[in-house]
Amino acid sequence: LFPYTHLIPYAEDVHIDTVTAATAFGVLGTFNVLGTLFAGAVSDRWGYKTVLGWVYALRAVTLVGLLFVREPVTLFVFAVTFGMVDFATVPPTTTLSTTLFGRRSGGTVIGLVSLSHQVGSAAGSYAGGLIHDVAGSYALFFSGAAALCVLAALLSWTIAPSKASARPQPAPI
Q: How far apart (Å, rounded) are the C-alpha atoms in residues 39 and 44?
């Protein structure tokens, strides 16, 4: 989860004080909860793959916006908007996993998704620091992350509609 590792150092790089950056970080966390709840409710109405794709697309937009943060107000705008779309991938991803792979395999698939997410988060956090140290800026890193989010959005929208649009059925008792 690279923004968590690099948000405060990035804010300091653009001359926003640490306390303000830490406060924005807390705001981001609060909006993570709201975004997750909203994504779950909206996914039930609009479809899981559609919402997942839009969440990734909006995440890309917020990451590009982060490149333009130079003052506290824009940092807080980023915190609210990124917070709304950051953890919002969890409800549609979880439901898609059980819908596409069945309830019997759902737990295993979600576990593998979680494992790969943690490995990717660690690699991303390291890469962000490495790129910053080499390039002297986070711009390349945030741009690359935004590009990966665009790819994730496109891939989400290509999930087979027959299974992805089906509502999961309750497990038999």
A: 9
Determine how many CB atoms are found less than 10 A away from the CB of residue 4: 13
pLDDT digits (tens, 9 = 90+) for 73-83: 999 999 999 99
Spatial neighbors of 92 by CB under 8 A, at least 6 apart, are 39, 40, 43, 48, 49, 51, 52, 55
Contact between 16 and 75 under an 8 Å Cβ cutoff? The reply is yes
Give the CA-trace dihedral at 137, 133, 59, 77, to 10 degrees. -50
Q: What is residue 15's DSSP assignment?
A: T
Q: Regarding predicted confidence, which is higher, 50 or 169?
A: 50
Residues 43, 91: contact at Cβ < 8 Å? yes
The pair of three-digit structure tokens given for residue 158, joined into one six-digit string: 């290509």
| Helix intervals (H) in 136-159 | 139-157
